[in-house]
Design a protein that fits this description.
25% strand; six-stranded mixed β-sheet; elongated; 275 residues; Metallo-beta-lactamase, Chain A; 434 Repressor (Amino-terminal Domain); 14 strands; alpha/beta; 2 domains
Length: 275
């Protein structure tokens, strides 16, 4: 698979933080001692590095990490899963969306996380590796993450469909969990962790038993950014710090958009969380 671009540019991070903190352009320009003209340029994607650094401090963003994002000087390095893990990236409208498949190599029992815009590639892996799909877990019910739910369910009607109780699905087979539930698939353990903000029932699935600890995080955060939240930005930051950034440092993070990353790298390079 070719490299997936970072989901957000530096200006996306700035705009998300400004909106989430409810800071007006006038107030931000005054605090950062910059002109409204320069602020408008930066928010429009022009990499004025001195301005970016001034803005960062007043939006609780790390200046070095934000400038690195503007310079396009960082991209996450991700450990390789030798077996039992596959990632899929499918186009949806003006973006792409991720879905994931994990399995126990011995028992061939498998689990899907979200469906993306098409399940074709995932179904190909299930067939070629002779897997038995046991569960379909949904991180949150936004359309781009569940477009292919019917397609996947019809191909594997035995697979149970699960989502958080605050993320209802328009599917007759959908079942709902609370936070802290454990599911077992062969030697794999999957724990549900509520990480609200992007949506009220946004769930992170923490998987142990693979070559590396894995957290399927939906739109809680992205490599060097955070998922969008119009009304619950601070809730999102708090839940991410408490629930995701306390996981083992070598945890691989599988977000809903953009490339895989790791917790240790996000602690160093994510301008939102290494502040």
């Amino acid at each position: 698979m070719p490299l997936i671009p970072l989901e957000d540019n530096f200006d996306d991070v700035i705009n998300k933080a400004q909106l989430g903190l409810k800071v007006s352009d006038e107030d931000l320009a005054k605090r950062a001692e910059i002109s409204l003209e320069d602020l408008t340029k930066v928010k429009g994607g022009e990499p004025l590095h001195a301005v970016i650094r001034r803005i960062a401090r007043h939006l609780r963003l790390n200046p070095n990490a934000l400038e690195a994002l503007a310079r396009k000087s960082w991209y996450p390095e991700v450990p390789v899963f030798p077996r039992g893990f596959a990632a899929f990236n499918t186009p949806f409208e003006d973006m792409t969306v991720n879905s994931f498949l994990i399995w126990d190599p011995k028992t061939k029992e498998a689990v899907a996380f979200d469906t993306g815009a098409s399940a074709e590639a995932m179904l190909d892996v299930v067939r070629s590796d002779k897997l038995r799909l046991q569960y379909i877990f949904i991180t949150h019910n936004h359309t781009d993450h569940v477009v292919a739910l019917d397609e996947l369910s019809e191909a594997h009607p035995q697979a149970e469909i699960w989502s958080h109780e605050q993320e209802p699905l328009a599917h007759p087979k959908a079942r709902y969990f609370k936070e802290g539930v454990h599911f077992h698939v062969g030697a794999l353990d999957i724990k549900t962790v509520l990480t609200p903000g992007h949506s009220v029932g946004q769930t992170t699935f923490f998987v142990s038993g693979l070559s590396w600890p894995l957290a399927v995080i939906g739109d809680s955060l992205f490599a060097s950014s955070v998922g969008g939240s119009l009304t619950n930005y601070l809730v999102q930051l708090k839940s991410n710090r408490q629930k995701i950034f306390t996981l083992p440092r070598d945890t691989v993070l599988a977000p809903g958009h953009g490339p895989l990353t790791t917790l240790s790298q996000e602690k160093k390079h994510n301008p939102v969380f290494c502040y």
